[in-house]
Amino acid sequence: MPGDPxxxxxxxxxxxxxxxxxxxxxxxxxxxxxxxxxxANDDPEWYGHYADRSCDLTMRGGTTSGxxxxxxxxALAEHYVIRSVGGASAGALAAAASAAAExxxxxxxxxxxxPHRVRPGFAGVAELVRWLISGEGDDRWRLTQLFQPxxxxxRVYRLAAAMMQQPATTGRNRYxxxxxxxxxxxxxxxxxxxxxxxxxx
Length: 201
Hints:
Helix content is 53%, strand content 6%. The chain has two domains: 5-132, no CATH class; 144-200, no CATH class. The chain has helices at 5-12, 18-21, 33-38, 44-52, 63-77, 90-103, 121-132, 142-146, 154-162, 174-185, 188-200, and strands at 54-59, 81-87. It is built from eleven helices and two strands. The chain starts with a helix and ends with a helix. The chain has a two-stranded parallel ribbon with strand order 1-2.
């Protein structure tokens, strides 16, 4: 998704609960697989439709995958009912969120907006992703605030985070941020040596 990720999420409109209701207009699509099988002999055509509208998901681990999964699951939920879902590591987190969202797919949204509560269903998942990557000032990137390193690894973490900066998304140059993080991660004599080295370069 090129450009500002917040704008991209907003344009997708995945936080609209109406997008997920049309998929289950036939209430029988909410039946469990075991209950649906009992109706298969009486109405095989409907059972075929049930199978076509069902989706099982297995999500592997990995930080990058974990970031992609929530909105990918929201996109799938517009067309399918999530039946069985599982995952490992970061994928397990997304799997748990997907199961909770499917359970709350048709639950009505709260009458009044509460900034401390997530709406039910997949709209709430999309809204949560939007919250994580939105905000102003220190709240601009909330995800990084949720995962803080041990104090002994703080300098290394800061250097790694600096090298992930991009002008298109954060408005910062990765090399300038990397240099500042590197200078703050080393001792005073090493700082002087690095400054002289960069000045000569």
